[in-house]
Amino acid sequence: MLQSYRAQWDDSALAKRWQALVPRERLAVSALLAFVLLVLLYVGLWQPTQQRVHTARNAFEAQRELNAYMHSQAPLLRNQASTPQTSIDPTRLQGLITSSAAAHGLSIERLDNDSAGAVQVNLQPAPFARLLQWIEHLQGQGVQISEAGLDRGADNAVAARLTLRAGDGEG
Description:
Elements: H1 2-11, H2 13-20, H3 23-82, H4 93-103, E1 108-113, E2 119-127, H5 128-140, E3 143-152, E4 157-166
Antiparallel strand pairs: 1-2, 2-4, 3-4
């Protein structure tokens, strides 16, 4: 099999052209071929790998900053949870949620009333800091969060699923 490939190579026009080159030209063509091969390896393998490493490093740093921010805000949220809050009329809860979400630049995907007087809210992805400000505002108005689910989206945005209740000190 190897001999048949060798015979085909020897009969090809490219092989005859190669044999016609003087040794100095063969060396120049070989060096050029090696250079082109190295450039193709760099552009095809090394450069994309380095770009992925850079992207992963940036994503890691963003997540590290978010983690540090969340840990720095945790004592503040714990203190707020232990302080007495104002009370809100349960009939005004849905209106307060929609108006305050719009005021904080948040978009509500879905809003459902629960049979227990709670309101379930699904928010479109938004910056985490904006979501925390809105939650802080709601808690200041006497709204309690009984359940929360967060999903990280693109560009460090967070989609939230919350169950909110009119707060009166009960959970």
